[in-house]
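Take a look at my tokenised protein here and describe the backbone shape.
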Amino acid sequence: MATREEIRRLEQEKLMEWSRKYQQVQEREAKRSLLVKVLYTEDYKTLSIKLLLAAVAWLFIGGAFALFLRGQAGLSSEGVPVVLDPSYYFQAMTNHVMDMVFGAAFTAVFSLAFYMIPALNGSRLVKWPKVANFGFWLNNFALFMMNLGGIQNQYLFTFLNPLQASVTWYIGYGTMVVAEWLEMASVIGTSFEGRVQGKLVPTPIGFIVMDMIMMALANIPVFIADMWSLFSPIGGLNIYLFGIPNAEVWKGLFWFADHPLVYFAPYALTGAIVAITPLYARRPMYSVRFTRWLIPVLFVLGSSVYVHHIVDDPWPLILRDIFAQTSTALVAVPFAALWLLFFITLGDPRKLKWDPGFAFIFAAAVWNIIGGIQAEPTNPTPSLDPTIHNTGWIFGHFHIMLAIYSVGGLLGALYVVGPDLFGKNWYSTKLGWLHFWGWQAGMGLFAIASSEGGFFGLIRREVAWAGFYEVYYQLLLIGGWLAGFATIIFAYNLILTLLYGEKVPKTDIPMWAVQTVAMERYAMRREGYKEEEMPVALPADGMIRLEENSGISNGTPVGAKALDNNSLDVSKGSPSKGLTDPGKS
């Protein structure tokens, strides 16, 4: 068994090896103009910022479609074209969902992954950057193809034959899946680029990599369904493969396999929350071992929540019982365990130092619990599913889970790590708080109004309805615009930060990552993990100084001497410096 000193020496050698490679990356980056960096970059921070800005752009595009919808529905219950002609109503709905889910949320997840993994493992290296950059641009091209489908795109959210999506929609969707596979391959490769044989990766990386694997597998039947539909008469090529109508294949493969995709943002967000929570609690997660066990449990259950939208179709009863009801109920258990760990770790919230970033994350936890409670009584059963899934109850649930939980949580993570990612403090704390309260009020009102309206029968996928329901659509209009204005405030703060934000001291390894890994190593030692299997210890000051004879100077890694003496000081290098300091009580 190697001694602690030998282990530390091997870790330092690995950090130096990665550092030399990263210096070469920086030298190549210095020769590239800004335009070239936009098209292609090897630097993990530049790549992450590029993805982030694209996610924000799609947030605005998808949000514009949403406001068209909310304006039309909130001003007329009779389908009179006040804002949109009824023929374009479902097109806007389709494009809104595609842009928000695949354009904004999914791109933000890739941005998070390409930034957090190299920071936490200490490598600062992206594996296969050409694949990552090509996947990014291909994904944006595919999304534009889907948006350009015209009024035929109303097919996606009506599923009424013979309505159909355009050929460009099917081609764009298939292209988007390929692009996602490319980005996921690069993310997974990046995790191995910074992995040392025999050592565990930091827990947040485990969640993110698991997420990528689950998404890659779930995309296989979705891609098959998309290609099948493209070749069929509805797809425009008029080919019946094996004589099977494409409508049933689409429902069987797309909806059967689609539901695991909704966990793509939550699982990556879980990794970010596990990394960030100790910074505010000033102690490790309550149980590292239990937290790590959540990774395979969530993978198995998240991958088995199928037949979620077609329970009224003639599928074998055993499939509906196991996948539609049992798995959907069981997946709530690990989430409940996650939030229990989260709240135990934080302790008394009155003793925490709050800032907009942590407020977004805390609110995301609360809303996920609310959304889960809302969904469980309506597990897809033959008696409820056909009715419930066509009411506002479901899109109320969906907006809780995607907008307030997933997107809200990702925004919180950005507020926390933003100063290191941008190299600048956030321009305004007040604007951050305005963004938080505007988003919570707007999307909260949206979720409550749609859920209550759905409880009383507010119909989904219609352009006209009884006047009784119009008050709910008016509340949805108000909630949507509140969230829209909050997003404008966020974008304004982001632009001012990039242009005029106060520069922060630069370290080789982000200090939030140093502190997170340090506390995880301390907890692992306390829980009986072996020294040689712990994640690589990062330098206490975040600096990797190359010296020919002595390796990394001034670098007793955090997790060694500091944690052995129980003297970890998380007040230095606060990840949200400029908003508040989670290390100061």
User: Anything to note?
Assistant: Residues 158-162, 548-574, 576-585 have pLDDT under 50 and may be disordered. The first strand starts at residue 546 and ends at 547.
